[in-house]
């Protein structure tokens, strides 16, 4: 735990007074209109730099040339079938990545839209696995102000005008709008899931404007957090001596990103809803995917009048052009009320864009205040994958599958956003008010959660139907599931998973009260694989802390997968050899890509059934989750898979010393970093898995298995320390290669999980602290003075290990994990200093600009690899170390070094009996 005084100072503090005039802040001191005292901040006129992508060295290129050729051939082959390869380094996005991201819109699992800090909407991920990165510049908020009977007027888009794609002001598209905002006196403040933009006298010097963006990301709320909607609340303060007529408009293109707006057959339709909520529906048809409907709306009140322009175009031939729309607002400050009765528009033609505008107008008295609220929602009820399989998203359980659900969503948003904010503040305030924590840590902790929205998440309703084209079932194998109590069951697996091809009541993940559907999130927007497990090991702390039922459901998915075999042949690209897709007893690398849950292991660089870290990571996560939740039903369900996962690893103990060996290829999450013999990383995970399995075996009453794991651990630990401990840290591996004595930042990953699960330390405390201090002194402080994070590999002579691309990289999520391990060991100062390097390089104004798109890693010269990546969620492993749940702290300490003894009347006996009954 953090001491009471160590971090009382305000290092890397960004007080709002440095960005906004104090008098302006006081004007917004009520109704949450003022930005929080702790947040990530930018001026709207901040320079937006292009990001630098990584490149391999000549030596690395030579080593990977065969892999590159095979991967290129595989990418082309997949494209010929109309599919996207899960890893495609050869295709670049149309727009280069830039340092302009902000808080994304929406809840989890129903598609997402990102919004840059300057106000642009981009990174549309409405369709699973597809990310359209370009900004849609038509999607904007604009303001029109009239004073003194119209003698003094201001009009501007509320986003700075230096954007790509804007043409001449004389055309009929959005270039004709008033891009007058300089951004010099406007600032952005981010504290996920909310963001504030304050216009301090822009464009009208006597009008102060605050816009706060709110999305329904509410921990432990499994309904609101699934909703695809966001609210924008404008607070207007008139500091002048005359009343002002203020009109805000929200414009939106009928598009799901990219060039989809040009595909034709899109329809816009005005609507008037309940409680003054009115706007426009934009019905968008896709070629091969289910349709999407947007609702853009505002809330009419006693002082706010709402009007709409249901349809306008961007070219001269349009019936109403963007230029016409702007002129109408500049002249009248509103649209015609008759527009609500126009009905659906004529479907757009190919090459034509349909856009809509919603206006909210109000009078603001001298020194008066007014609030105007807008919302956007999107209804995309079905998720469709290859092989004609589709599912209903989680939110349809509450709002149905109609395309008009979008109307209900914006109505719900505009009438409930204040309740959302109350719950968000209850969750965040205890951490924000903790003066012992560095300020940068507090707001980065929350902002890294952006990935649970923008990381391509999919959340489906577990009782939704799935349609399948007749005759496409693929029968794969017979699966035997062995229970330790002697009960054995056999079932047929189809497509590598489960029985049959239709969801049924038996597919429910738990009891009805715990049924939260099925959840997927990508490894990264560039690595299209669902729930990549070796990375989930790091990221899962966020889900366990905030949405534990989702975390347990994911573990159940992998537990079921352990007991299945998929015998279909796959070519592994690293060596060019063939093997089966998944072996029984092996944890899959991921839950698939084109057919998740039914065609796992989309990753095909290496044969992951031979990886050494996946099975131990499964055992460790299962025990940690069980210890944190105290859910004995979960323990019952997954215990056979834990046993199978442990027993599967016996084949990798080549010399019968109870310690697994690596096989001379990159057979773990560092999949370009070869390991020979015993590995500090995988071996440490194996030791931890044995201890966790023994502890869990005692909880579920399988004492024979506990004794078996205990015996293995005692032998394996002695060998591990003898072969790897060098007096100050554990060597990278037991081989004789040039990097065998390297200092690996992640070498204590197993110990991290022991401490996180309330289990005894793997090693003597002096060895743990010595190792962590070595990592801090070398991997952290010898890289730009500790201002970049922890490099993965460092030679004992103080030079970075450049054996391969990954050894010389700084991995953001691993650095957070190392910091968490330091916190558990009582090394608070080193922990926050280590993690602060990620903040400085990635999030600070002096850094490389990776905010809200934290990559997998970067090099010492700031070249990134794989933006918007899962692993940095491991910052929540630090928070776990700071505030472990009472269930974990109070759990019975099972020290398997001692003889296993359980009395006949221990409190745990009741739980064992329940488990036995359920197993029968």
Automatic annotation (TrEMBL):
The reaction(s) catalysed by this protein are: a beta-D-glucosyl-(1<->1')-N-acylsphing-4-enine + H2O = an N-acylsphing-4-enine + D-glucose
**Glycosyl-hydrolase family 116 catalytic region domain ranges (all copies):** 517-878
Coiled-coil region: none
Instruction: Name the Enzyme Commission number(s) assigned to this protein.
Output: 3.2.1.45
Question: Which GO molecular function annotations are given, in alphabetical order?
Answer: beta-glucosidase activity; glucosylceramidase activity
- InterPro entries attached to this UniProt entry: 6-hairpin_glycosidase_sf, 6hp_glycosidase-like_sf, B_Glucosidase_GBA2-typ, GH116_catalytic, GH116_N, Non-lysos_glucosylceramidase
> What GO CC annotations are associated with the protein?
membrane
Sorted keywords for this record are: Glycosidase, Hydrolase, Lipid metabolism, Membrane
Task: Name the domain of life.
Answer: Eukaryota
Top-level enzyme category: hydrolase
The Glycosyl-hydrolase family 116 N-terminal domain is annotated at 102-420
One GO BP annotation here?
carbohydrate metabolic process
Please give one Pfam family short name.
Glyco_hydr_116N
What is the annotated role of this protein in its UniProt record? Non-lysosomal glucosylceramidase that catalyzes the hydrolysis of glucosylceramide (GlcCer) to free glucose and ceramide.
Q: Which family does it belong to?
A: Belongs to the non-lysosomal glucosylceramidase family.
**Name of the molecule in the record:** Non-lysosomal glucosylceramidase
Q: Give the species this sequence originates from.
A: Anisodus acutangulus
């Amino acid at each position: 735990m953090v001491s009471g005084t160590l971090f009382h100072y305000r290092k890397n503090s960004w007080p709002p007074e440095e960005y906004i005039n104090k008098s302006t802040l006081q004007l917004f001191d009520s109704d949450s209109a003022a930005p929080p005292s702790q947040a990530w901040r930018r001026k709207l006129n901040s320079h937006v730099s292009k990001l630098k992508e990584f490149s391999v060295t000549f030596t690395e290129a030579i080593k990977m040339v065969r892999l590159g050729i095979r991967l290129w051939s595989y990418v082309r082959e997949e494209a010929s079938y109309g599919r996207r390869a899960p890893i495609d380094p050869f295709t670049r996005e149309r727009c280069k990545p830039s340092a302009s991201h902000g808080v994304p819109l929406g809840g989890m699992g129903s598609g997402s839209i990102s919004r840059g800090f300057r106000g642009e909407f981009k990174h549309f991920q409405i369709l699973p696995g597809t990310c359209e990165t370009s900004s849609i510049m038509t999607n904007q908020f604009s303001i029109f102000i009239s004073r003194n009977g119209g003698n003094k007027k201001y009009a501007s888009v509320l986003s700075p005008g230096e954007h790509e794609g804007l043409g001449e002001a004389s055309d009929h598209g959005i270039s004709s709008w008033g891009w007058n905002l300089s951004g010099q006196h406007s600032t952005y403040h981010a504290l996920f899931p909310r963001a504030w933009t304050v216009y301090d006298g822009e464009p009208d010097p006597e009008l102060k404007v605050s816009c706060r963006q709110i999305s329904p990301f509410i921990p432990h709320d499994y309904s609101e957090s699934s909703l695809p909607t966001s609210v924008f609340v404008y607070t207007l303060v008139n500091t002048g001596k005359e009343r002002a007529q203020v009109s805000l408009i929200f414009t939106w293109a009928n598009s799901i990103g990219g060039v989809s707006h040009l595909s034709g057959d899109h329809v816009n339709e005005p609507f008037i809803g309940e409680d003054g909520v009115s706007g426009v529906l934009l019905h968008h048809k896709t070629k091969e995917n289910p349709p999407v409907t947007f609702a853009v709306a505002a809330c009419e009140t006693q002082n706010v009048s709402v009007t709409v322009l249901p349809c306008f175009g961007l070219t001269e031939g349009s019936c109403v052009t963007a230029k016409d729309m702007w002129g109408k607002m500049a002249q009248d400050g509103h649209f015609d009320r008759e527009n609500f009765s126009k009905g659906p528009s004529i479907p757009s033609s190919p090459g034509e864009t349909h856009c809509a505008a919603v206006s909210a107008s109000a009078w603001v008295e001298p020194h008066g205040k007014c609030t105007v609220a807008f919302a956007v929602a999107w209804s995309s009820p079905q998720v469709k994958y290859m092989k004609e399989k589709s599912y209903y998203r989680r939110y349809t359980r509450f709002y149905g599958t109609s395309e008009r659900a979008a109307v209900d969503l914006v109505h719900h948003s505009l009438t409930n956003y204040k309740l959302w904010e109350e719950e968000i503040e209850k969750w965040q305030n205890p951490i924000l008010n903790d003066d012992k924590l560095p300020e940068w840590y507090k707001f980065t902790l929350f902002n890294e959660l952006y990935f649970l929205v923008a990381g391509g998440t999919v959340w489906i309703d577990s009782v939704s139907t799935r349609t399948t084209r007749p005759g496409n079932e693929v029968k794969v194998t017979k699966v035997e599931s062995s229970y330790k109590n002697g009960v054995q069951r056999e079932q047929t697996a189809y497509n590598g998973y489960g029985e049959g091809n239709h969801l049924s009541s038996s597919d429910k993940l738990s009891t009805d009260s715990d049924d939260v559907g099925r959840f997927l999130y990508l490894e990264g927007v560039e690595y299209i694989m669902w729930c990549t497990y070796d990375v989930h090991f790091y990221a899962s702390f966020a889900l366990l802390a905030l949405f534990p039922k989702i975390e347990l459901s994911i573990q159940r998915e992998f537990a079921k997968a352990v007991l299945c075999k998929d015998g279909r042949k796959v070519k592994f690209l690293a060596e060019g050899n063939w093997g089966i897709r998944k072996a029984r007893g092996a944890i899959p690398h991921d839950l698939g890509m084109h057919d998740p849950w039914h065609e796992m292991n989309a990753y095909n660089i290496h044969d992951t059934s031979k990886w050494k870290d996946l099975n131990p990571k499964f055992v460790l996560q299962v025990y940690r989750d069980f210890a944190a939740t105290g859910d004995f039903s979960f323990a019952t369900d997954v215990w056979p898979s834990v046993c199978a996962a442990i027993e599967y690893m016996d084949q990798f103990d080549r010399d019968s010393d109870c310690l697994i060996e690596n096989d001379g290829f990159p057979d773990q999450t560092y999949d370009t970093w070869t390991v020979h013999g015993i590995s500090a990383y995988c071996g440490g995970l194996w030791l931890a898995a044995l201890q966790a399995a023994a502890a869990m075996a005692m909880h579920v009453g399988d004492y024979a298995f506990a004794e078996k794991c205990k015996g293995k651990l005692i032998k394996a630990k002695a060998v591990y320390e003898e072969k790897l401990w060098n007096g100050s840290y554990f060597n990278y591996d037991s081989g004789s290669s040039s990097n065998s004595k390297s200092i690996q930042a992640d070498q204590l990953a197993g110990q991290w999980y022991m401490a996180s699960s309330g289990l005894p330390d793997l090693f003597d405390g002096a060895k743990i602290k010595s190792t962590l201090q070595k990592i801090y002194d070398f991997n952290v402080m010898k890289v730009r003075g500790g201002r970049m994070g922890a490099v993965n590999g460092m030679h004992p002579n103080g030079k970075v290990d450049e054996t391969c691309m990954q050894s010389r990289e700084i991995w953001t999520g691993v650095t957070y994990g190392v910091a968490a391990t330091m916190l558990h060991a009582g090394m608070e100062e080193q922990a926050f200093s280590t993690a602060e390097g990620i903040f400085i390089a990635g999030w600070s104004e002096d850094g490389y600009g990776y905010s809200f798109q934290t990559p997998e890693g970067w090099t010492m010269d700031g070249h990134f690899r794989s933006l918007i990546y899962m692993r940095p969620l491991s910052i929540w492993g630090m928070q776990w170390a700071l505030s472990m749940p009472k269930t974990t702290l109070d759990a019975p300490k099972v020290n398997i070094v001692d003889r296993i003894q359980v009395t006949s009347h221990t409190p745990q006996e009741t739980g064992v009996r329940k488990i036995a009954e359920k197993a029968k």
